[in-house]
Amino acid sequence: MYQQYLRYGMWEFPPSHFYFYIGQFSLAMFFMMTGYLFYAYILKKKGRPSWSKIYWGRIFRLVPVYWLLVVIVLFGVGLQTGWHRNVGRFVLAKQIARWAAGGLFLEVPINGLWATSRMTMSVT
Questions:
Q1: Is 46 strand, coil or helix?
Q2: CB of 9 within 8 A of CB of 1?
Q3: Greatest pairwise CA separation for the chain in angstroms
Q4: Please, what is the average pLDDT of the chain?
């Protein structure tokens, strides 16, 4: 769908059924595997999992990869803006902090680049 948007400017399903279903299939497989692994963990803990351990484990697994994504986005913004600062230092720091917060806030353009969220397809 994103390719259709970039090519034609409209959010439409791809004309190929293969590409339409491969996206749905991969998402379904992800949820099935996640459910299988979580169910195995619940069985291993005899129905009494440590919820705090689960959530802290998720945070320490996801946030470093997310921060790597933010670094890649910042590099892309630098390339797109010619490494020139287009906004004030405080504004730029605030924009970067919003992105680095792990998806807690809505994405905002960084350094005046309106297409910043396109780098991640607005998925954070």
A1: coil
A2: no
A3: 57
A4: 90
User: Range of 121's domain?
Assistant: 51-124
Across the chain, the runs of DSSP E, i.e. the strands, are none
Q: Are residues 61 and 100 in the same domain?
A: yes
> Are residue 58 and residue 115 in the same domain, yes or no?
yes
Residue 36 shares a structural domain with residue 55: no
Over residues 112-119, the mean pLDDT reads: 91
Q: At what angle do helices 89-100 and 51-80 cross, to 10 degrees?
A: 140
Quote the pTM value.
Answer: 0.71
Residue 110 bridge partners (DSSP): 113
Residue among 24, 101, 26, 31 nearest 66 (CA)? 101
* Cβ atoms < 10 Å from Cβ of 62: 12
Question: C-alpha 31: how far from its chain's center?
Answer: 17
